[in-house]
Fold each of these.
Amino acid sequence: MSGTRSTGRRLVLVLGDQLSPDVAALAAADPSRDVVLMAEVRDETTYVRHHKKKIALVLAAMRHFANELADAGWTVDYVKLDDPENTGSLADEVVRALDRHDYDSLVVTEPGEWRLRQAFESLADRLDASLEILEDDRFVCSHADFERWADGRTALRMENFYREMRRRTGLLMEGDEPAGGRWNYDSENRKPPAPDLDIPPPRRARPDDVTREVLGLVAERFDDHFGDLEPFWFAVTRLKAEQAFTRFVDERLAAFGDYQDAMPADEAFVFHGVVGLHLNLGLLDPLAVCRRVEAAYRDGDVPLNAAEGFIRQIIGWREYVRGIYWLQGPDYANENFFGHIRELPDFYWSADTDMACIRACVSQTREEAYAHHIQRLMVTGNFAMLAGVRPAAVHEWYLAVYADAYEWVELPNTLGMSQFADGGLLASKPYAASGNYINKMSDYCGSCRYAVTRKTGEDACPFNYLYWDFLDRHRDKLEDNHRLGRAYATWDRFDDDRRAAVRTDAGAFLAGL
Ligand code: FAD
Ligand code: DLZ
Ligand code: SF4
């Protein structure tokens, strides 16, 4: 524990996803006096069984960031995962570091998950030093602002929130009006994949010696975790992340708007930014990337539906789901509106299924630790909800398998948006769809053993009968949702034989999972 003599010196804890030079705890500290602590710990690498690429990304980025801080004049106390003294938890590493030197206080930027925030709050009782948890200001909307926005509203819809963020940031605004006269060009973000699409790949960074050492460590320690470690090409420094983003703006952004929802088989990244993993680590700044995208639009390099579509994802969806996460509190993770209890089918790990769409999305996830939004929402998420999988199991899967996954952003997307487990706090209706939607937006169905046009029977696409069976099973909970009125009217027009066939096929399929 720290000594009784006051040194004024602070221990500044920087977590693995706080790799920004101006993160609150660093901004509040003094490099000539204070010491930065960064620790690779077993608990953070295993609290879910993260994809190998995600662990490598975080540890490699942490090591590079520590070197940059040291170059900038900070004293950095860096604990490696294989340090024999390593206790395995962040809280205990803080206690150990406080023992090493005399500190008056510990300062940390608030962690991005309730789990860690609670751990730090309880740690305060064990410390002689005082503890300061500073708000993470790397977001457009503070907790207080979000609470103010949410206060008194019956429905917390993203669209209203997004308009407020546009006004606040001035992004794509012409005075008080949205550029182009409309706030949202979502309807122009839905082109299906065209056969002749020329899609430039994302920039691939070459691992340097520091990253290679981390890859060796991950290969050895996390061999039994899901996912392919190599090839490993994610950027692990700010400079490389900026280069990757520049490549996206120059080569891919223009078509991002049109093909945002498209799922061409064998094209993992389509025209997406592949920026979430860098934004969430702190290697890229959300407002700075939006300003770059706005400038590309103002310069006439990209159309409005691309620029607006991208900016909406960041200052709209990203900020909004974070607000919901903190507003809802730690119990949000336990919500289960439909009472779903099925465990996650094994093919979410093995990709061993005849459903070509799921096989493609899971295989790609295993190889890249990446899937774009529509794959996550309308293929793997949609299937889990239709099949009645326990939302907490779905949540754990998404948190583990994607390189950009942290609970503050993953949980509302999974539990709220994709599983409707909060009963409609976040989504106005469940994102449930039959095979028809997947067929329209992808070219998976052509190589599938099931026929997307068949509604029931041995060869019918399982999404088809599962969709109707889901609506039927949960009629008491969903019937009053006005956005589902047409679907229930259609179901009611089916004859008895068809309804019975749907129930029988769904029952048999689910029993076989
Ligand atoms: P792009 O398509 O290029 O979009 C640009 C950026 O916008 C993203 O990087 C991200 O920062 C932001 N964004 C877009 N959509 C969302 C959204 N719905 N919520 C928050 N930010 C958004 N995103 C994560 O960052 N981490 C997660 O763990 C995560 N889990 C998800 C789970 C499910 C079930 C679903 C449906 C979505 C999830 N998302 C998550 C949102 C979205 O799918 C990813 O942000 C996106 O696919 C990342 O790829 P990209 O960087 O190429 O994004
Ligand atoms: C995700 C992650 C991993 C894999 N490893 C570490 C680590 O060893 N040390 C660390 O400080 N942070 C790590 N992280 C990021 C934390 O899990 C993250 O800060 C919390 O989940 C809060 O968002
Ligand atoms: Fe997926 Fe159905 Fe298409 Fe097969 S037919 S790829 S299961 S949507």
Note: The pocket of iron/sulfur cluster (ligand 3) is lined by residues 355-357, 435, 438-439, 444-445, 448, 450, 452, 461-463 (CB under 6 Å).
Amino acid sequence: MIPIKTPEEIEKMRLSCRIAAEVLEKMVNFTRAGISTQDLDDFGRDLIKEAGATSTTFGYGPGKKIKYPAYSCISLNDELVHGIPSKDVILKDGDVLSIDLALSYGGFVGDNTRIVRIGNVDPEAERLSRIAEEALMIGIAKALADNRVGDISHAIEMHARENNFSVVREFVGHGVGKDMHEEPQIPNFGRPHTGPTLKAGMTLAIEPMFTQGSPAVYVCGDEWTVKTRDGLLAAHCEHTILVTNSSPEILTLVKK
Ligand code: MF3
Ligand code: CO
């Protein structure tokens, strides 16, 4: 069953997502060469607390021995998702990283991920990250009532393929609401007119995950960090959106 949020629940999603987006925006602006990814996570942890929200990632890990130990996932270069912040990882010129921030406020989860480029970035790294960001918006544009999940998936996949990048298959987007992960799964690959039908009131986390070379990835010994097998670059970005009877509403956009 895919939850359809009531108008009251939608208001709560708007609020939790706005807070998640504002925290993430501040983390993005704080990101610079010379700080550690732990510094960045500490900064995010304090912002989550100040907002009166709670981290959805800290302590997460149903069925896993090692619970996720941080307030954000920070994945650098050949890391795709779930990078664990560390005081030993110092950001430097040319790094491309994704910051994934999920929090809960008022009983609802906001989930979002942004890509940050530090200084002079390799042109292919720049291109990969831009294509992932474009694919996110292209996928969101398909999140229309009476479309199906496969319409989103296919649009995202095609944008990767047209640009000679690969789509990771092991990790996917998801419904989001009272729980961080709800139905449906939203793969970044698939066929149009397949999968569950979208309805107004569904809230979805859409999150393209692309690689520069082979799509093969593996989970590191820390049980979380996901890297490309070939050591080439990976990219990931994410918004939480609301399906409406007209255009999708991006709940994790920071309103200026
Ligand atoms: N927020 C991410 C997602 O889209 C990842 C959370 S995994 C965690 O599902 F372990 F860090 F919590
Ligand atoms: Co997500």
Note: The domain at 7-250 is CATH 3.90.230.10 (Creatine Amidinohydrolase).
